[in-house]
Amino acid sequence: MEWETVIGLEIHTQLRTKSKIFSSASTAFGAEPNTQACAVDLGLPGVLPVVNAEAIRMATKFGLATGSAICKHSVFARKNYFYPDSPKGYQISQMDLPIVGEGSIDIELEDGTKKTIGITRAHLEEDAGKSLHEDYQGMTGIDLNRAGTPLLEIVSEPDMRSAKEAVAYMKKIHSLVQYIEISDGNMAEGSFRCDANVSVRPKGQKEFGTRAELKNINSFRFVERAINLEVERQIDLIEDGGEVVQETRLYDADKHETRSMRSKEEANDYRYFPDPDLLPVVFDDAYIEEIRKTLPELPDEKTARFVNDLGLSEYDAGILTTSRELADFFETVISESVDAKLAANWMIGDVSARLNKEDLSITDCPVSATHLAGMLKRIEDNTISGKIAKDVFNGMWNGEGDADTVIDKKGLKQITDDSAIEAIIDEVIANSPNQLEQYRSGKDKLFGYFVGQVMKASQGKANPAQVNQMLKDKLS
Amino acid sequence: MYHTKTLSELSAMLEAGEVTSVQLTEHFLQRIRDFDSELNSFITVTAEQALSDAAKADEIRKAGNAGPLTGIPFAHKDIFCTKGIKTTCGSKMLDNFESPYNATVVEKLNQAGIIMLGKTNMDEFAMGSSNETSYFGAVKNPWNTKAVPGGSSGGSASSVAARLTPASTGTDTGGSIRQPASLCGITGLKPTYGRVSRYGMIAFASSLDQAGPMAQSAEDCALLLNAMSGFDPKDSTSMDKDVPDYTSDLNKPLDGLKIGLPKEYFGEGLSAGTDETVQKAIEEYKSMGAEIIDISLPNTHLAVPVYYVVAPAECSSNLSRFDGVRFGHRCEEPKDLEDLYKRSRGEGFGEEVKRRIMVGTYALSAGYYDAYYIKAQQLRRMISDDFTKAFEKVDVIMGPASPETAFNIGEKSNDPISMYLSDIYTIAVNLAGLPGISVPAGFSENMPVGLQIIANHFDEGRLLNVAHQYQQKTDWHKQIPEQFK
Q1: Cross-chain Cβ contact B201/A278 below 8 Å
Q2: Is residue A290's pLDDT more than 90?
Q3: Between chains, do B365 and A42 touch, taking CB under 8 Å as contact?
Q4: 10 Å Cβ neighbour count for A243?
Q5: Residue A110 predicted with pLDDT over 90
Q6: What is the pLDDT of residue A337?
Q7: Is it the case that residue B435 has pLDDT exceeding 80?
Q8: Which residues of B are tagged catalytic?
Q9: Which of A43, A87, A279 sits opposite B236 (nearest CB)?
Q10: Does A45 contact B89 at a Cβ distance shorter than 8 Å?
Q11: CB-based contact (8 Å) between A78 and chain B?
């Protein structure tokens, strides 16, 4: 039987507010345990939450960026459950009236076609603390630094049909939240993680199969693996005559398996109800419009502009807009009146390759956009060849100065003077009598040998086009 | 002696230099030592701190920087977090809890210069109408030490009635200021929801809880409300609304005042003695020029059932933080996490608290939420609308604060429903978020009867004016139980 996979994602993204969603404690990562937890975060008797206006603003921004309905009257609700890292015994979240309603986002599939993924809702909530399971004399430690960090939970429609689509969607959201500057997207620090709802059904069947929820996956690679593994498990199970049960499963990256955490029957009754300590969040159109004005050009808009105005291919434009920083870098380069296609080739080629190799991000690139532009200009005006440019780029990477300095210092300036090239050609021909004879007797392939020798003798600096032309003349 | 004076009178004496704050503080501390072993109205007495604060207050006064409350001895209900001082909320759960911060009300009254004598006894987590649910033992009514003082602010009411403190704070979720004020013959004001910050006041039912003053007179309450009120950026439900000087309208004449008498407050369940006393008070108002208008609050009968869904629902969630993990009672040698939770909470909470957590958890559970919680919210709106309509016709509403005078200790403790009905006249006011006051209006069989006056939202000024004018004509509020004179 042919099976179809159905996937919906719940993405939790930490908002980059300075203070927590309901208290004034700092949200900075990595402090000593419990040093960034104030009375409110500790859930002391008598304390009350006060909502962080910045978190509201950021959530609204996300809604606008995804063309979603913005709920002008949203309500915080309490999700009640006991757990040591949940200090109040409830989490403040949103249930019936989330701040962001229905919207959508386009992803690009491998074959280049676009697919629209529905966003069901996005709601604000507070993060929990962490249980520390190192040895505390047989006890568990609790670190409440993370408790109260604002999260935006973005819930998708079950619109994805493969692990790859799920990853593409996750990457798209990941890029977007950084574009609009509401999250640092740092997956290693847990700022961006997801739960995946996965089910399978016979191809052609309308009803969804029973789903399992894979909890707390924090990398693109793991999402793909976990989903594929789960799909395989469900298909095997059904084909062996079994039934998928609705449950929450945990993906174990080390063991490469998913295992059951709790079944539907064991699931908590969270007893959601509106938090009486917080008033409904109410705002008007003017507020929304004010936030709309702060939206930057979004990735899809930018891609379209790169294609239409700069003449880049969809593919190149897509790569250059994967992050706002990369696109900004590119735009700085071309603002120095450098050809966009040349700049794009370098950005996608040598620059990206070197960054990947050194595991650096574009913001850490040792070659500034201005320096890169300076070098590309020297390619354009024939001062250096594309090949020599690689040496110049290396020089700039190693901090030897801008392109002109490196070219000067290393004497990499291209030789375009006909007489100088002629002199080199003459010398090469004089030193290669055998090859000359063979060439003249019909061994055309040896032309490359002469080009190579001339380039070698000029230390690669001779203008390749001129060398070709002049050699042809001399050898004929 | 000093204890026979109202707070306002003591304030004037301090200002005139007739007495020092240290003298007053010593006097009231001595009264606590003399009488409180019998009344049990205090959980903690902070004598040393009080005397040192009083000395400082006297310095401030010497320097000419004193306000009307500077140096006035005072008591806080033990529901308010007080920095470095045990804050128990009447529960074993918090027997070992020292708050690292001050409640906003505590902070504001400190700023105003009051001297805290100690923390008063209360029903556990403010759940009760008799002060019998306190882990620290029942409080006695100074008018008859076999009787309850009412609750949950029973310690505050009893200590003010016996003049162990000139005044105190209370909190009122369903009548917890007004009912004990009524039963102990003192003046107790529950302000409009949002008038006084709830920050640092240990939550029972967040949408109903409100702090207020408990004192000998309306004038005292006005002085205290001036200091307690105002927007608090730490409490989202506190209202950003100017605080008027509540003493400024006290002396306005009541000519033409329209008093509404809801027929539902004078029906079945009201004891004859209380009825008669309240009617007499209303006659007094007539003689002062007020107009009496019969009104109806048709959904009054729904108030108690609605309250006993809403309040437990909120409390079941509010009390989840008492889990033995970070503070408060923790069981010995827990086997695992579940055992830690179950035994810490099982041992730390008393019966009434457990009952309400169970009821509230049930009301919020999947499958029952719509039928109970949502329904209760709808009815709450109807109850509130009754008042809105009434205030189109009248300025204030009057009736009894409690259906009967103080009952005996043990009399109702095994009958929760009958206990819950003690708050039948006060609960609707919390559901509607309105201000209400209980004013001593006389005695029935030698026990005090309170007249409840209800005003529209943020109309505390009117409420205090109406109460004060009555207290200018009567001296019920000046009565002190024989034993404590």
Answers
A1: no
A2: yes
A3: no
A4: 9
A5: no
A6: 87
A7: yes
A8: 77, 152, 176
A9: A279
A10: yes
A11: yes
Q: What are the Cα distances from residue A260, in Å, to A223, A230, A245, B51, B336?
A: 17, 11, 10, 63, 21
Q: Report the sign of the C-alpha dihedral through residues A345, A347, A350, A352, in that order.
A: negative
Decide if A22 touches B, using CB distance below 8 A.
no
Question: Is the CB of residue A269 less than 8 Å away from at least one CB of chain B?
Answer: yes
Assigned token pair, B397: 């509403």
Alpha carbon distance A54, A77 (integer Å): 19
Q: A302 is written with which tokens?
A: 């930018």
Domain of B217, CATH number, reads 3.90.1300.10
Q: What's the gap in Å between the CA of A356 and the closest CA on chain B? A: 46
CB burial of residue B46 (10 Å; 0-12, 13-18, 19+): buried
- Supply B193's token pair: 């929801």
Please tell me the least confidently modeled range out of A133-142, B117-126, B176-185: A133-142
pLDDT in tens, A149-181: 999 999 999 999 999 999 999 999 999 999 999
Digit-coded pLDDT (tens) for B1-40: 899 999 999 999 999 999 999 999 999 999 999 999 999 9
Tokens encoding B406: 């103080």
**B324 domain residue, yes or no:** no
> How big is the A-B interface in CB pairs under 8 Å?
100
Has residue B305 been placed in a domain?
no
In order of their start, the domains of chain A are 3-290 (no CATH), 297-410 (no CATH), 418-475 (1.10.10.410)
Q: pTM, whole model, 2 decimals?
A: 0.91
Which chain A residues contact residue B199 at CB under 8 A? 46-48
Count of CB atoms situated within 10 Å of the CB of B401: 31
Q: Is A157 exposed, middle or buried (0-12, 13-18, 19+ CB in 10 A)?
A: middle
Of B95, B180, B187, the C-alpha closest to B453 is B187
- Residue range A426-450, pLDDT digits in tens: 888 888 888 888 888 888 888 889 8
The CB density around residue A265, as the number of other CB atoms within 10 Å, is 8
Mean pLDDT for the stretch of residues A16-32: 94
Mind telling me how many Å the CA of B203 is from chain A's nearest CA?
Answer: 6
Task: Please provide the average confidence, as pLDDT, over all residues in chain A.
Answer: 92
B189 within some domain: yes
Distance CA A222, CA B133 (A): 54
Place of tokens 């040598």: A350
Q: Which of B201, B234, B344 to mutate to test the interface with A (most CBs of A within 10 A)?
A: B234
pLDDT at residue A395, rounded to an integer: 94
CB-based contact, A44 to chain B, within 8 Å: yes
Q: Per the CB < 8 Å rule, is B326 touching A271?
A: no
pLDDT band per the 50, 70, 90 thresholds, residue A303: very high
Residue B101, chain A, CB below 8 Å: the answer is: yes
Which amino acid appears at position A68 of this protein? S
Mean pLDDT of B32-54: 98
Residue A326 has pLDDT above 90, yes or no: yes
Q: Domain tally for chain B?
A: 1
Q: What CA–CA distance (Å, rounded) separates A319 from A113? A: 15
Q: What confidence tens digit (pLDDT) does each residue in A237-272 have?
A: 999 999 999 999 999 888 888 899 887 777 789 999
Residue B55: which domain range? 2-252+455-484
* Residue A138 touches chain B, beta carbons under 8 Å: no
The dihedral built from the CA positions of residue B345, B326, A15 and A71, taken in this order, carries a sign that is positive
Contacts of A171 (CB under 8 A, 6+ apart): A220, A322
CB contact under 8 A, B100 and A82: no
Of A34, A42, A48, A266, which to mutate for an interface test with B (greatest number of B Cβ within 10 Å)?
A48
Cis omega (within 30 of 0) for bond into B8: no
The residues with which B214 forms a beta bridge, in sequence order, are B168, B188
Segment A304-322 mean pLDDT = 93
Question: Is residue B289 one of the residues assigned to a domain?
Answer: no
Q: Which of A87, A276, A277 is closest, CB to CB, to B321?
A: A87
